[in-house]
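Justification of computing resources. Each target in the renewal requires a structure prediction run like the one illustrated here; the chain below, 201 residues long, is used simply to show the kind of job we budget for.
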Amino acid sequence: MQKFSTLKSIPAYLPIVNIDTDMIIPKQFLKTIKRTGLGKNLFFEMRYDDKGKEINDFVLNQKPYTNSKILIAGKNFGCGSSREHAPWALLDFGITSVISSSFADIFYNNCFKNGILPIILNDEKIKELSEYAKRKEEIFIDLKEEKIIFGNNETKFKIDPFKKKCLLEGLDDIALSLEKTDKIESFEKSLKIKKPWVFHD
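Resulting structure tokens:
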């Protein structure tokens, strides 16, 4: 998993509440188990018309937001089913941080497992940051310091220390397990002596 430390980007603003995972990546694109290739279908039903043509009014179809790495969204982002393809699609598009006033729990946790930083801010700060998106101005996220810098201002956010460590060091579930390889091997050796029948063919 890619390490996350700092991020600078013009944010894209999508002021829609209750964006569920089916809106993020519709069910017809869930057949793949690859984490790549889903970005083109991100927000499919909002980005494309019935003929597959881009809808010009949608923010991620407009420059410079086509290259945004930060998404500012309405509350309860990522609700609905628990599909992990949702963070995969965001990541493949290039979005590595989502800012909202609230997230669905499963989606929130899935973000950390895939290298995406979800940030919770109050509505007032969301509105303030949205102005930078509208003016096409960059904002700067510093995970280590847990702050966002915009213009001459900054705001703090809170992240669970363990989740923060995982992002900073690029640790997904597999990497976390591999960190405990020595302990696992030691346990297996001990178990082999105490209960050899467990390992008998």
